[in-house]
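for the recovery benchmark. tokens below, seq after
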């Protein structure tokens, strides 16, 4: 196992009816900017619960944060934060609203030029406004990490930054928010969380049985609970288990002391940037390609995944790897997520464009930093 430091300061408030605690967790006298998305919070009662819980605070609302939040929209919120002397950001929504709010929090305090530099050049985030989150969609893990992914529409770039300064002070996770989620968003959440685990697990062994078994338990929970939530959205117990799995998948715990991949995400972000494909769906497309192309380098962990998660115990190493890829693809498709590029009308032209972009960037991805344009072409061609 590698050396590591781990600190996660996010207070999690989990369970039915807990949204009422939001006000008690915000410093008295705060001036709040309440951020939200396209309006789902008005239909499912979350907005009313939040409003009731923050009576007595001065609140300005900022809605319209898009899925894959747009830099252009977020900069409008930054203006409001500055003009209105906002002191606390309250994100009420899914990963996009929260990621967007993290960027607002950092951009409003950024004094080294254009805040886009936080994303494009990873300019250090020295300060950020405090954030509280009421999560309405289990998927990204954003509620318990310091990551944020933002899209600049003008240049079709989808870029990420990470800073402990934008980790929420608290996140409220009431599993009942899932009851109003469309099937598609549940499936996206299950697959996104699944692939977050895979990015921190499917690399090479470093003798880290705790991290491995934590990771496998999250995968197995998602495999069992995900379909139950899809079949019955008001099954509270399954909703709760799904929600906690998604948080645990990306709060840093399973990734300490082990190599991490993230190539599936890096390539997937390009598919969203160019084609607007939902984040999780891009992962379902790319991951099987990576497993196939990197089968030699990842073989020990793919075989372990096959055996411990999918119960594959027979055959040669190559056969087991093929079966493990097949099982993974079948799982994604069983929750309604297609896994091939033509399913999303993506042509070979897009493959060329993505490879050119990675060529220009000049860096390689993956746990061994050995996935560049040549490998990315093979990975995406595998998905045609
Ligand atoms: O905008 P509203 O009206 O709220 O509707 C949203 C949106 O249309 C809807 N929704 C959310 N909660 C709902 C609901 N509808 C009904 N009932 C509810 N309770 O769902 C739609 C999608 O929401 P979005 O926030 O975009 O989804 P998700 O949470 O999957 O977030 C995706 C974004 O997170 C980034 C992705 O790249 C993408 O931009 N990621 C962030 C990560 C992180 N911060 O650590 C890691 C991930 O890998 C990911 O990259
Ligand atoms: Zn993801």
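predicted aa per position
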């Amino acid at each position: 196992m590698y050396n590591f430091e781990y600190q996660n300061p996010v207070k999690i408030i989990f369970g039915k009816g807990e949204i009422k605690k939001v006000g008690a967790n915000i410093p008295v006298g705060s001036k709040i900017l309440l951020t939200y998305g396209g309006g789902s919070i008005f239909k499912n009662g979350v907005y009313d619960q939040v409003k009731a819980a923050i009576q007595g605070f001065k609140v300005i609302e900022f809605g319209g944060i898009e899925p894959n939040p747009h830099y252009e929209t977020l900069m409008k919120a930054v203006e409001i934060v500055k003009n209105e002397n906002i002191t606390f950001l309250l994100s009420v929504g899914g990963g996009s609203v929260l990621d967007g709010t993290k960027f607002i929090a950092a951009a409003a305090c950024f004094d080294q030029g254009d805040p886009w530099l936080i994303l494009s050049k990873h300019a250090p985030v020295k300060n950020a406004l405090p954030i509280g989150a009421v999560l309405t969609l289990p998927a990204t893990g954003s509620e318990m990490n310091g990551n944020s992914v933002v899209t600049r529409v003008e240049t079709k770039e989808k870029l990420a930054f990470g800073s402990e300064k934008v980790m929420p002070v608290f996140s409220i996770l009431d599993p009942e928010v899932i009851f109003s989620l469309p099937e598609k968003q549940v499936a996206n959440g299950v697959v996104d969380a699944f692939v977050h685990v895979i990015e921190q697990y499917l690399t090479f062994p470093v003798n880290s049985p705790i991290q491995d078994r934590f990771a496998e338990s999250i995968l197995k929970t998602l495999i069992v609970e995900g379909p139950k939530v899809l079949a019955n959205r008001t099954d509270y117990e399954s909703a709760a288990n799904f929600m906690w799995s998604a948080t645990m998948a990306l709060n840093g715990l399973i990734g300490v002391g082990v190599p991490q991949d993230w190539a599936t995400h890096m390539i997937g972000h390009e598919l969203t940037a160019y084609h607007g494909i939902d984040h999780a769906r891009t992962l379902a497309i790319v991951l099987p390609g990576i497993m196939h192309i990197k089968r030699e380098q990842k073989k020990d962990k793919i075989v372990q995944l096959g055996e411990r998660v999918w119960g594959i115990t027979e055959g040669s190493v190559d056969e087991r790897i093929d079966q493990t890829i097949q099982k993974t693809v079948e799982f994604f498709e069983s929750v309604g997520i297609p896994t091939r590029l033509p399913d999303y009308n993506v042509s070979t032209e897009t493959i060329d464009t993505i490879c050119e972009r990675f060529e220009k960037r000049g860096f390689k991805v993956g746990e061994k930093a050995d996935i560049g344009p040549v490998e990315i072409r093979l990975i995406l061609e595998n998905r045609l």
